[in-house]
Specification:
Elements (H helix, E strand, L loop, with lengths): L4 H14 L3 H10 L16 H18 L15 H4 L2 H35 L2 H22 L7 E2 L5 E4 L6 E6 L5 E6 L3 E6 L9 E5 L1 E4 L2 E4 L4 E6 L5 E6 L4 E5 L4 E5 L6 E6 L5 E6 L4 E5 L5 E5 L6 E6 L4 E6 L3 E6 L7 E4 L5 E6 L5 E6 L4 E5 L7 E3 L6 E6 L14 E6 L4 E5 L4 E6 L6 E6 L5 E6 L3 E6 L5 E6 L4 E6 L5 E6 L4 E5 L4
Helix pairs in contact: 1-2
Length: 512
Amino acid sequence: MSFSSDEVNFLVYRYLQESGFVHSAYTFGIESHISQSNINGALVPPAALLSILQKGLQYTEAEISIGEDGTEQRMVESLSLIDAVMPDVVASRQNQINQQKQQIKTEVQDTNREEVVTSNNGVGTSDRGGDRNEMEVDEQQQGTGTGANASAVEIPASKATKLRGHESEVFICAWNPTTDLLASGSGDSTARIWDMSDNSQAPNQLILRHCIQKGGAEVPSNKDVTSLDWKCDGTLLATGSYDGYARIWTTEGRLATTLGQHKGPIFALKWNKCGNYILSAGVDKTTIIWDAESGECTQQFSFHCAPALDVDWQTNTSFASCSTDQCIHVCKLNVDKPIKSFQGHTNEVNAIKWDPQGNLLASCSDDMSLKIWSMKQDTWVHDLQAHSKEIYTIKWSPTGPGTHNPNMNLTLASASFDSTVRLWDVERGACIHTLTRHTEPVYSVAFSPDGKFLASGSFDKCVHIWSTQSGLLVHSYKGTGGIFEVCWNSRGDKVGASASDGSVFVLDLRKL
C-alpha cells in the first residue's frame, strides 16, 4: 500500500468536516495546502478515513487470530484503534489467542465423552434449543418496549422520496417559501433545485454548478456549497461557497449574479425580509451587506477578530453576527461601529437567531451554553446551561405575538452534540422538554409552520418529528446517512432532509 501526505491530509480534512468541526477543517486545510493538491473531493466517498481505519483494524485482528497452521480463533474482545498500534498489546493478544486454542483442544477431548452421555439421555440438545428460543422472544419484546413511543409512527419507505444526484455530502437544504421546490447544497460544488410539486418518485432536478474563472475558462470550483437561502417571495436562491463567492440563481437554475468581495470561505448568508439585501459571513472575519439587484457590496463590517460563523437579520437594515472570537456584534447599515456588542460566551459562538419580533437574540456555543440577549441591557437575559456537549444550532418557534400563531407561547429549540434536543420557555428561562431518542450528535432542528411539531436530524441517520406540546415522538424515519439538515415546506406537510452519504430525501406526512 502506498499513499502520499496529500492523501492523508485530505482524508483528515474531510473527516473534520463530516464530524461537524467545520472551522477546524478550514484551518487544517489552509495549513496543509489542501487547495493545492490535485485530489477531486467530489469523488471521495463519505466516511473514507473511518472506512480505511476500520479495514486496517480488521486486518490487524485477522493477523493476530490466524495461527501458523492457518486455523482461526475468534477474538473475545475487539481491538481499539490505539491498541492496534501498540506492539505490546498486539503481542499480548496473540498470546491470549494461542492459549485459547490450546485450551479448546483440551476441552474438545474432554467434551467428546460428555456428548455421548448427553445424546443417550436425549435431553441436552432440546434444552439448549429451548433456551435460545426464549432469548429471542425476550429480545423482540425489549425492542418493542424501547421503541419510540407507543403512539409514534415509523414512516414507511413509500412515504419517503429519495433524491439521487449529489456526489458528496449534502450539508444544507431549504424549501422555497411559495412552492414545493427544495434546494440542496453539497460538497460536490453544486446546489440543486428539486421540483417536488407533483410528488414524483423521480422529480426533475436543476444542477447549479459553482464554477470559477481559471485560465480564461470556467471550471468547477471543487469547493463545498456551505449555505443557501431563498428570497422571501421564492423568486431567487442565494448560495454561499467555500470558494469565497456568493451567488444568486433563478428558479430555472440560471446564475443571475456573482458576489465576490470575501477573501475566503463563506459560512452563512441570509436574505432580509424585503428581499433587497443579502447578508453574508466569512472566514475573512468580515460580514457584508450586498445589494441583491446590482450584486455590489453595500457595506463591509470588520469588527470580529476571527472567522464570522453566522449572521441573522433583526430588521431590514440591522443584523447580528457571531464568531469564533466568542463575541456577538449587532450592526446597522450606514453605521460605522456596532450599535451593540455582547460578550459572555467562553468558546466559539456557533449560531445566533433573533426571535420573530426581533426583540430577543439567542446564541449557542461550544461552551455548552445557550444565552438570550436583549438590546435593552448589556448582559444576558438568561444563561441556559443544561446540555453536556457543544450546542450546534438553535431555532425559534413561529409562535407568540406578531406571528401567524399568536395564541401559542414562544419557545426556543436547541440541538447539541450530546444527542439531545431541548425546548425552552424563554420567558421563564426554563427547559420544557428534553428530547432524548437520538443516539448521535444532533445537527439540525426545524419547527413546523404552525409551531405544533419539531423535526430533528442527527448523525444516527434518523429524522424524528416531535409534538412541541407534549414532547412526545410522533413520527420517525431512518435514512442512509448522517443528517445535516431538516426543513419544512410552507404548508407543513413535507419534511426535507440532507445527509452525509450524498442523499436528499422528502418525507410526505399526509395521511400518516
